[in-house]
Each structure stands twice: as structure tokens, then as C-alpha cells.
Amino acid sequence: MRHGDRVKKLGRTKEHRRALLKNLCRSLFIFEKIKTTLPKAKAARQMAERLIEHAKRNDLAARRRIYRYIPDHKLVKIVCDEIGPKFADRAGGYTRIYRLGPRLGDGAEMAILELVEQSEAGTIAQRRKLIHRRNVVEVKKEKKVKDQKAKAKRKSKVKEKEAAPTKAPKTKKTRKKTK
User: Fold this and answer.
1) HSE-up of residue 117 (Cα within 13 Å, Cβ side)
2) Is residue 31 in a domain?
3) Same domain, 89 and 114
């Protein structure tokens, strides 16, 4: 019996469950619609609606509280400046869940979790590019720095070889065997 159990565990540890829900909320705020299993959608809905409540306030404390769950400054700005004001006149019910039926592979009940008031497709695409571009740029910069370091290392090795005096090749010395 489940008397008093308030948390849907989703078959995960506490840390894994929290990370899962944070990632689902992050995706929900970027794309405004996500497809997942029904229990995950119900659990993510709670967190998303709580975050939208904070976004409606749109003060510094609210932004910091949202940042705890979505550690991305650009996305927090989008949530507070674009998504929060859309729901200013609503008292709740910011998301909806559509049931899709069982998944073919394992029979898990699938669902779509979406925001009730959605932006246009162009705005969502622009938001996605803004969020994902940052990651791509950071990876490119890191790769560029690594390449520069490797190139400098190769050049220094070549210079050392050129600067080193040439020695006569070593010949094999034979040992006399003593008995």
C-alpha cells in the first residue's frame, strides 16, 4: 500500500529523478511541447507549473528560484520575460497533457505535455537556436584551444630537434662473455 507516499519515484533515485524532471522542464520551456511517458509528464507538470508561478512574479528572488531548477541564464530570461507574462491572467492550469496510448516497444503509456498558450513556430525555433548555439560555440572554442595547444607543442618539438646537435649513430657493442 502507498499510504502517505507523496512522491512518484519513477523507478529512480532522488538525484536522478530531480535531474530528469529538471531536463523535462527545460525542454518544455524551450519547445513548449514534449513527448514523454504519462507518469513523467504528470511529475514534470507539477514542477513546470510551480516555475511558471515564480515567472509570473518576475522579480529577482523569483529568477533565482527558477535558476535553481533551470541553471541557464538565457532560458530563465525567456521564462520570465516571455512565458510568465502569457499566463498573468491565469490562476493555474498552465500545462495540458494529451494521452497518446501505449508505446510499441514496451507498452509504456505515452503522453504529450504542452503549455496551454504557445508561441508561434518561428519564435520557438529562434529560442531553440539561441539556447543551443551557446553550447555549440563553447564546444568549438574548447576544440580550438586544444588544437592550438597541440600545434604549439608540435612546433616546439620540431624546434628542439633542429636545435639539438647531431650525434653519430650509436653502434651495438658486443659483450665478451665470461665464464
Assistant:
1) 14
2) yes
3) yes
